[in-house]
Design a protein that fits this description.
This protein has 2 helices and 4 strands; from the N terminus they run E-E-H-E-E-H. The longest helix is centred in the last third of the chain and has 12 residues, at 58-69. It has helices spanning 20-26, 58-69; strands at 8-10, 13-15, 35-41, 44-50. The protein is 26% helix and 28% strand. The chain has one domain: Pemi-like Protein 1, Chain: D (Ribbon), CATH 2.10.260. The strands form 2 sheets. The chain has a two-stranded antiparallel ribbon. Strands 3-4 form a two-stranded antiparallel sheet. The chain is an alpha+beta fold.
């Protein structure tokens, strides 16, 4: 899913309104804290809204699977 949002001025700072449907999609509510990350998706730099302070590297995920199966 994706949403187009406008960057608005909020007391001199850039601000975006996050659609309620987007918040529900990642399981957060008004008042919860989230992290705004700058990450690469393919070769494009993107802003990512996350419930965790960092996104695990896909390589880490693949290697952890090897560790669970006893391969290294």
């Amino acid at each position: 899913m994706n949403w187009k949002v406008a960057i608005q001025n909020w007391d001199g700072e850039g601000a975006i309104r996050i659609p309620e449907e987007a918040l529900r999609k990642i399981g957060v509510n008004i008042g919860d804290s989230v992290y705004l990350l700058v990450e690469y998706v393919g070769n494009a730099q993107c802003l990512v809204l996350s419930k965790t302070p960092e996104i695990a590297d896909r390589t880490d995920e693949l290697v952890s699977h090897w560790d669970r199966s006893g391969q290294a």
